[in-house]
């Protein structure tokens, strides 16, 4: 048995079953809107006229768009909502892995974003998550744990691809 | 044409350096960035949590806000015609209040694809003092000639 096969064999069957599966398909909780665009631009002092000058937006993008790197913003759940009994988590597969693998801490180490059709105010996006891989157990300066890779796909309401994010996370337990 | 300077495709060469950008990070920088990206996790606003649960010395910049900083850095250089196609980054260390973060970039590759889209690949870094906190590579489309507009590319004509 190869090291990879041994590592897979040690993974709980529940986690093995998630690999390659489309999970948590959902529609954003709210429409893409310019208020968050301004807050994001302000947070990084982004003066790109595409987001501030209507004439430029009309000339280049046929109207307002959102900064491409805001993709994940449109899916982060409200911190509280009526009737919600548990805190909703973005990137739920990541939190599922922490729970099932009993790794209480986690950090993101790598992030790749590929951008498609521009996202516009008024869009209501759809997303889903796919677990691509889970590593064998690793020891790092943070602690002992595993790395995992998760793809998050995004589409607009017309079914057009607007982007894909790939996250590499490291779930770990701090050494005593 | 409106909206400030726009990068001229034929003026870009591998090895070119992007202008440095230096920003002093405060607790407000970190918290504003977290809230702008709707990231409510406590390590980005609660110093006690960051120290005792994450083992870091303070709250720290979150991942989506770092992406927004890199986007701003790249499009400051390209102007509004520049359209990001792909961005990859690796967080090697955290960025804390009190840090002075410095963005640097270098052109790695200039090419056109089969659809005639002009691409510039840049290697970027976010440094604090002599440590590299985040490494990033970005692929950005810029107009190759007057009248070309990467934002109008769709389907087979947009291959990021």
Describe the overall structure:
- The complex is a heterodimer of chains A (176) and B (160).
- In chain A, strands 1, 2, 3, 4, 5 and 6 form a six-stranded antiparallel sheet that branches.
- Chain A has helices at 3-10, 13-18, 34-43, 54-61, 92-100, and strands at residues 22-27, 105-115, 126-134, 138-139, 144-155, 161-173.
- Helix content of chain A is 23%, strand content 30%.
- Chain A is an alpha+beta fold.
- Chain B is 21% helix and 32% strand.
- Chain B is built from three helices and five strands; from the N terminus they run E-H-H-H-E-E-E-E.
- Chain B has helices at 27-36, 47-54, 63-78; strands at 17-24, 83-91, 100-112, 118-128, 131-141.
- In chain B, a hairpin with a 2-residue loop joins strand 4 (118-128) and strand 5.
- At the A-B interface, helix 3, helix 4 and strand 2 of A face helix 1, helix 3 and strand 2 of B.
- Strand 2 (105-115) of chain A pairs antiparallel with strand 2 (83-91) of chain B, so a sheet runs across the interface.
């Amino acid at each position: 048995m190869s090291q990879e096969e041994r590592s897979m064999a040690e993974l709980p069957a529940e986690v093995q079953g998630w690999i390659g599966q489309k999970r948590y398909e959902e529609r954003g909780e709210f429409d893409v809107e310019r208020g968050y665009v301004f807050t994001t631009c302000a947070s990084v002092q982004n003066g790109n006229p595409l987001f501030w000058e209507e004439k430029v937006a009309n000339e280049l993008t046929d109207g307002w768009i959102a900064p491409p790197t805001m993709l994940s913003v449109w899916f982060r759940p409200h911190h509280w909502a009526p009737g919600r009994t548990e805190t909703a988590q973005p990137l739920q597969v990541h939190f599922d892995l922490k729970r099932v693998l009993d790794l209480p801490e986690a950090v993101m180490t790598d992030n790749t974003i590929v951008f498609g059709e521009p996202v516009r105010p008024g869009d209501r996006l759809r997303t889903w998550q796919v677990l691509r891989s889970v590593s064998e157990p690793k020891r790092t300066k943070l602690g002992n744990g595993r790395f995992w890779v998760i793809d998050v796909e995004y589409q607009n309401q017309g079914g057009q691809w607007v982007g894909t994010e790939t996250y590499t996370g490291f779930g770990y337990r701090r050494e005593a | 044409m409106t909206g400030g300077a726009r990068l001229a495709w034929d003026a870009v060469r591998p090895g070119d350096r992007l202008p440095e950008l230096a920003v002093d990070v405060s607790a407000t920088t970190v918290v504003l960035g977290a809230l702008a990206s709707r990231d409510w996790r406590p390590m980005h606003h609660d110093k006690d949590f960051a120290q005792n649960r994450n083992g870091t010395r303070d709250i720290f910049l979150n991942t989506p806000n770092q992406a927004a900083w890199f986007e701003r850095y790249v499009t400051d250089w390209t102007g509004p015609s520049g359209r990001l196609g792909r961005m990859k980054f690796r967080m090697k260390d955290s960025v804390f209040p009190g840090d002075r973060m410095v963005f640097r970039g270098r052109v790695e590759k200039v090419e056109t694809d089969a659809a005639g889209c002009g691409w510039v690949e840049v290697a970027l870094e976010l440094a604090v003092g002599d440590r590299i906190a985040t490494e990033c590579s970005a692929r950005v489309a810029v107009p190759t000639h007057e009248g070309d507009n990467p934002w109008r590319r769709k389907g087979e004509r947009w291959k990021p």
